[in-house]
Design brief:
By secondary structure, this protein is α/β, with parallel strands linked by helices. The chain is 45% helix and 23% strand. It has a nine-stranded mixed beta sheet with strand order 5-4-6-7-3-8-9-10-11, with helices on both faces. It has a nine-stranded mixed beta sheet with strand order 16-15-17-18-14-19-20-21-22, sandwiched between helices. The longest helix is centred in the C-terminal third of the chain and has 85 residues, at 493-577.
């Protein structure tokens, strides 16, 4: 080995290894799963069925690059007319006509079948034209949209591969970041296999899927291949919204969320007592139960109390209008209208099946961005099960709660269960495990009555009551009754009322007996006092009689003594006289 070749080999061996450069798409979520975007200066293939979002994705990538990074780009349309593409893009709020003046160039490359079938066709002329335009604009990105239309017209697999390699080599030589879109549906195996060679040729392959699940439109995106880079290999929901494409991800792997020790009221005083002071601020609260058990009432009470504290709250109500929501709650003493009028409370009502679970999630994110609430209510979150199946609903529910918790928002979600089996909620919605506080509402049917009960299944980080309480709704508001039990059974409704009455009767009987006993004691005391008075009088009389007797005896003794002295005096006198 020559010394020069050895030096080059050593330089290569010891050169620092640098990852491939990436070009950001600025599409929410996609740059996250790819670690920065599509490979810069290389070719990315977007594959999917009709309506999956390929063209919108490619065009938005160019628009974001032109607007946010001032990178000129070229869009080559093999299928649609460029004027149609520009008109369609206006629905997303993109001013392509303005960008077209400086940083975007649209080339109509639709070809007539007669031109292709003549056999004198290749892409060399068009690529030369694009190359000149790219140098003139200093373009860094180029999109070939609907390349499969061209390949179909060629009708020769060898010709198809020749032209695709021609485009690939041209992109490599020009150093442009290339995006190619092609239709290939999973159900159309011949079409998928026909264009499979493209997936081996390019540096990055992104698959788009569009399908119906439970009559709900579901779009997903998956990065199947990415040379020289790590990427998230899972399939992620894709939403085409009014402002473009969004890719829903699960957020960061780590859960670095502050844990507040501040308490916020549930809106029900006795429930706050059961929770040793209320919910933790920024926590997630699940209220589950059968229809009519007052889930909406409990969640609205918390939102109303937050507004009363001067905070902002957002309520997402599925399948119930805002006016009806406010009216119904007023019947149980919760008046939300003043908070709605002041703007502190925003009630967003939406029909559940109007969009998919991920689109609902995007709406929640937009509401949080716009209103910046301290309390979020989703009523019921279980309605998402009708928007694309249980898996999509579970993922959207978890991400919605994670999103709110990451922003320190106290989140109250209600969930409908078909029966009173608490395990049903834990296994279907998959949110009971991530909820910080779980309150379960149920019916207790006995003696021809249906009564509501409340149980705190769990409340992390705080001491809480484990007793079953009766939940009472009245014109004056929501309250929780004291626990009444007999024979190990909790009594509610009429049974509780009868038990209360029986206790009252027992208390009254004991009080009456006590009163009678007190009366007897007072009579006995009066009788004894009278007897004592009589005895005292007798004693006084005896004492007086004794004093008189003593006085008389003393007088008699005095008289006898005086008589003796007189006799002695006379005798003495007689003796002296004699």
């Amino acid at each position: 080995m020559s010394s020069r070749r050895k030096n080059i080999t050593d330089a290569i061996r010891h050169a620092p290894v640098k990852g491939i450069d990436k070009s950001a798409t600025c599409i929410g979520g996609f740059d996250e799963i790819t670690g920065g975007g599509i490979p810069r200066g290389r070719v990315t293939l977007l594959v999917g069925g009709p309506g999956a979002g390929k063209t919108v994705f490619a065009l938005e990538t160019l628009v974001n690059g032109a607007v946010k990074h001032r990178e000129p780009a070229i869009f080559v349309a093999f299928e649609e007319n460029s004027r149609q593409i520009i008109a369609n893009a206006a629905t997303f709020g993109w001013d392509l006509e303005e960008l077209e003046r400086e940083r975007l160039f649209f080339l109509d490359a639709r070809l007539s079948p007669t031109v292709v079938q003549s056999g004198a066709f290749d892409l060399s002329g068009m690529l030369a034209q694009i190359s000149d335009k790219a140098k003139e604009m200093q373009a860094t990105r180029v999109v070939f949209d609907g390349i499969d239309v061209l390949l179909t017209l060629l009708g020769d697999q060898n010709a198809e591969r020749r032209e695709m390699y021609r485009i690939y080599d041209w992109l490599q030589s020009e150093g442009l970041t290339g995006i190619i879109t092609a239709k290939a549906a999973e159900s159309d195996r011949p079409s998928t296999e026909r264009y499979a060679f493209m997936q081996f040729m390019v540096d990055c392959v992104v698959l788009f899927h569009h399908r119906l699940l439970d009559r709900v439109s579901i779009r997903t995106v998956r990065v199947m291949k990415y040379r020289g880079s790590s990427f998230a290999e899972s399939e992620f929901p894709l939403i085409i919204s009014k402002d473009g494409i969004h890719v829903s991800t699960f957020g960061p792997k780590s859960l670095d969320v502050d844990a507040s020790t501040t308490r916020v009221s549930s809106g029900i005083a006795r429930l706050d007592t059961m929770l040793s002071g209320g919910y933790f601020a920024g926590s997630a609260v699940l209220i589950s139960g059968a229809p009519g058990t007052a889930k909406t009432t409990l969640s609205a009470a918390c939102a109303g109390m937050a507004c009363a504290r001067g905070e902002r709250a957002v309520v997402l109500s599925f399948d119930e209008g805002a006016a009806q929501y406010v009216r119904n709650l007023k019947s149980v003493g919760i008046d939300l209208q003043p908070h709605v009028d002041s703007g502190a409370l925003v009630i967003h009502s939406v029909r559940t099946e109007s969009q998919g679970a991920e689109e609902h999630l995007l709406s929640i994110k937009n509401m949080l961005d716009e209103h910046k609430p301290q309390v979020l209510v989703i009523d019921p979150i279980s309605a998402l099960g009708k928007t694309g199946g249980p898996i999509a609903a579970s993922h959207a529910s978890v991400r919605a709660i994670d999103l709110a918790k990451s922003r320190g928002i106290t989140t109250i979600v209600t969930s409908l269960v078909a029966d009173d089996n608490q395990a049903t909620e834990a296994t279907s919605a998959q949110i009971s495990t991530i909820a910080d506080t779980w309150i379960h509402l149920a019916y207790l049917v006995k003696g021809g009555e249906r009564n509501r009960t409340l149980t705190i299944v769990k409340s992390r980080g705080m001491k809480h009551s484990s007793q079953v309480r009766e939940l009472i709704l009245s014109d004056h508001g929501v309250s929780l009754a004291d626990v009444y039990s007999a024979g190990g059974e909790v009594l509610v409704g009429t049974a509780r009322y009868e038990h209360e009455q029986a206790k009252h009767e027992e208390e009254r009987a004991r009080e009456e007996e006590t009163q009678r006993h007190r009366t007897r004691l007072r009579l006995a005391e009066a009788e004894l006092a009278a007897r004592i008075t009589g005895l005292q009088r007798e004693l006084d009389a005896h004492r007086a009689e004794l004093q008189r007797a003593d006085s008389e005896e003393s007088e008699r003794k005095t008289r006898r003594a005086e008589g003796h002295r007189a006799v002695l005096q006379r005798r003495t006198a007689d003796a002296d006289a004699s």
